[in-house]
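We close this part of the discussion by returning to an individual protein. Part of our work consisted of pairing the sequence of a single chain with a tokenised description of its backbone. No coordinates are needed to read the tokens, only the vocabulary itself. The amino acid sequence and the backbone structure tokens for this protein are reproduced below:
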Amino acid sequence: MLQLHRFSALTVLASVLVLGACGDDDPSGPVIPVAPLGVTATATGSSTIRVSFNSSAGISSYTIERAEGAAGAFAQAGTVTAPATPGAVTYNDVGLKVQTLYRYRAIAVQGSQSSTPSGETSATTLAFGAFGRDITGDITTNTTLYADTAYTLKGFIHVANAATLTIQPGTVIKGDEQSALFVLRGAKINAVGRADAPIVMTSSKAVGSRRAGDWGGLIIIGNATINKTTANPEVEGTGTDGTTVASGKNYTLTYGGGTTDTDDSGILQYVRVEFAGFAPRANQELNSFTFSAVGSGTRLSFLQAMYGLDDAFEWFGGTVSATNLVSYETGDDHFDMSEGFRGRLQFIIGLQSATLNINPLPGQNVATDPQGFENDGCDGAGCNNGFDSAPLTTPVVANFTLIGTGNINVGSGSSGGVGMVLRRGTGGYYVNGLLAKWPRAAISIRDQATYNRAGGVATPVLTTADLALRNIVIQESPTSFEAGTARFTFDLAGNALTAGTGTTNALFAAYPATITDATTVAAFDWTPAAASAIATGGLNAFTGKLATAAGTAVTATAFVGAAAPGGTKWWQGWTNYAQK
């Protein structure tokens, strides 16, 4: 019995030993991967950061976590598949904010298991224009300009050969006296900025030394129709280098003969053009924005021209529409339309505190007759039917705020100092606007052909007229309509044209008492003040030819001027005000 019990005890002990040995052979639980080592972050642009680290064997993927700022919470930014053999791993983080600190860490993933996060690393995205590059030749293949690079035009640069020029938000493009940017027929420009990152085309000179006419400007040529029958009207200012096409040279460009009113030249959104208007030829200045025969497939919105030597925005024929346009201080006209332009424009701001006071470069002139609108039908060579040449210039222009020079420094000739000049057979529909501080007159209707567009009557009938003015407030101008030979007037009451009383400054939420070269863009808030004369009184329903021409591109409003009472301050964040 004693031996049997001894055997049983030994058997149990052996079993325990065996079981213990088997337990030593099995893992106590799943294997947890080791956190990545050597994690670094490097800014590669104004919106990009590259995260790098070393991989380990047996890892299936890595999770990259990002936190904004010094105290922001981490969240997943992306994942990277682990390489087949251990080595360097990189992750490019995109779409980040400019000049912003970001912190990163990485997590290794093996099957269903994840490591603890690695140690943190950080980097700050670069400023807009941190790098520099010259553009010396024409752009003939699809090209992208990046926000981390400031580009300088070295010559007259053409986007040609059906190429598309894409410009990132926040990109800065600079020019000098022998440069401009042209987008030719068949080519496109896709320049889509943001309110917090506008695309800026400006002078190459240092801030404080800039002036109107420092460089050419932006010129787009499309395939839409115009009312000049000649096949080769030249783009003003081109041809100083002859007619031979040569990269970077100012060869002759024409814009006639187009047949496609729906032509698409691309998109401009949140784009500023500053200190432009250089004159390649004597008395032939380029404009800040020039749209020659541009079609309705092109999209234009949130554009500003500032301190240009000639016109801020000029349209030669075409059908392109636009919204949210701003012009601050220009040498000549703020908005110039002619040669059969039939686009639709809404929410327009023009400010002219004085005529430009600069010393021009040789061959350049400084205008003394800035005006708000200067619209023409057809004039000169190629107008086979004179002022009546078709298609007529019949834009729809709604919700405009045009502020003039008051009694300051205007030309002494027959032109200048007028808020709206309509001449040479132009038509069009101008509604829900404000014309203020124009020292000669608010409106000038300058010939019989133009008056005929209104039906030859003082109160045009919207069902038949090709020219009408409706619901416009006139403030601080000596007369509503310019008088004189071949000058015509409309009935104020019949067209809801109101000659206001009081000051222009009081109409707005904020407007400086005086405007100097120290004034900043923050001084202007175009929102109607409480009880302002422009907060109400708009034409809130379109009928007749006006409704047909407006279509869905322009809408009726219960207010006049460029801003809705209590509405979005759509000009803020991306516009600028500077005189040098």
Remarks:
- The CA atoms of residues 263 and 578 lie 35 Å apart.
